[in-house]
């Protein structure tokens, strides 16, 4: 499904603004930002497409959209910071796309992360809204909490679905939820509507993460840009695996061994497919997507509401 033109316009605008976020920094800072920007536009679009007027897309109201664009830029830089940190924590050299630490080394990657953190803090201070400042600051704390939680549950076959969803909220959904609520706050809508926009972002983020975790089993290494089943190989047990563990005792034995035997990873992936774990993960992704659509019922029919609905639909179409 093609995204509405307003989303594409704001996405293109944010691509340029995020790539220029390092100004007035040395030129190589821009290169560092650009090399990991691709595919990180959703959070920024969620920030811009906000109910600045009932029934009007914020991107069509430039004056009213200014705070939303500032949130989007801060969110986009935070998203880039998250990617750099994630690359470093995983130290995954099998990614098809080049990472900053691969191109420039770990020291430069850490410094790039420091720079983006400082830049995003500058954007945040200029929002001059204490509620939004607190909200987006929480995202940084959540990301760190998510990484700690993930590291503490590697190869843990007793991980529950609730554990997985909490980690996914920390690492993915928190940022999107903060983006959508921040946009609503700047739009001056009711507290109830702000809550619904937060829940929309939360449910969209959870659905997005589940879809990503499904694709790790259903797409080829060429499509993924990394080896299929790479999360499982590192002991990161996602929704398809958690569901599969309920039906496949052999899968637990293989994971407990941390794939010590040759071809054990391939066997584990086959068991995930055979168990129906992927099908149940599909259902979970759609359930969260449906909840996100329901969260938008508080809004009047408009172009911006359609844009937000289409983001949910587009995400789910990735696994159709």
Automatic annotation (TrEMBL):
GO MF terms, alphabetically ordered: metal ion binding; prenyltransferase activity
Domain of life: Eukaryota
Amino acid composition bias (Low complexity), ranges on this chain: 1-23
The entry's keywords: Magnesium, Metal-binding, Transferase
Pfam families from the UniProt entry: polyprenyl_synt (PF00348)
Matches recorded under PROSITE patterns: POLYPRENYL_SYNTHASE_2
Gene Ontology cellular-component terms listed: chloroplast
Gene Ontology biological process terms from the UniProt entry: isoprenoid biosynthetic process; plastoquinone biosynthetic process
Cofactor(s) needed: Mg(2+)
SUPFAM superfamilies tied to this protein: Terpenoid synthases
Keyword flag tRNA processing: no
Cross-referenced CDD domains: Trans_IPPS_HT
Coiled-coil stretches: none
Family: Belongs to the FPP/GGPP synthase family.
Name the UniProt record assigns to this protein: Uncharacterized protein
């Amino acid at each position: 499904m093609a995204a509405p033109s307003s989303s594409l316009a704001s996405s293109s605008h944010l691509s340029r603004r995020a790539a220029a976020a390092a100004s007035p920094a040395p030129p190589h800072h821009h290169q560092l930002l650009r090399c990991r920007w691709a595919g990180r536009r959703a959070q920024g679009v969620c920030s811009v497409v906000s109910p600045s007027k009932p029934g009007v897309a914020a991107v069509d109201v430039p004056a009213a959209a200014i705070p939303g664009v500032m949130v989007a830029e801060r969110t986009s830089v935070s998203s880039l910071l998250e990617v750099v940190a994630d690359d470093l924590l995983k130290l995954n050299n099998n990614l098809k796309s080049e990472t900053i630490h691969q191109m420039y080394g770990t020291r430069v990657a850490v410094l790039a992360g420091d720079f983006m953190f400082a830049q995003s803090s500058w954007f945040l201070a200029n929002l001059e809204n204490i509620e939004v400042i607190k909200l987006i600051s929480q995202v940084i704390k959540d990301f760190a909490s998510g990484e700690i939680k993930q590291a503490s549950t590697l190869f843990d076959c007793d991980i529950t679905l609730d554990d997985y969803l909490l980690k996914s909220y920390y690492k993915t959904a928190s940022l999107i939820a903060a983006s959508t609520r921040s946009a609503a706050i700047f739009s001056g809508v009711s507290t109830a509507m702000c809550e619904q926009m937060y829940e929309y972002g939360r449910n969209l983020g959870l659905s997005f993460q589940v879809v990503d975790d499904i694709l790790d089993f259903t797409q080829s290494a060429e499509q993924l840009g990394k080896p299929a089943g790479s999360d499982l190989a590192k002991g990161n047990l996602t929704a398809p695996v958690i569901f599969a563990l309920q039906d496949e005792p052999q899968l637990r034995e293989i994971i407990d061994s941390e794939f010590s035997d040759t071809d054990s990873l391939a066997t584990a992936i086959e068991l995930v497919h055979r168990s129906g774990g992927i099908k149940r993960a599909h259902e979970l992704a759609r359930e969260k997507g449906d909840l996100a659509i329901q969260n938008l019922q508080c809004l009047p029919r408009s172009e911006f509401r359609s844009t937000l609905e289409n983001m949910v639909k587009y995400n789910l179409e990735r696994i159709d």
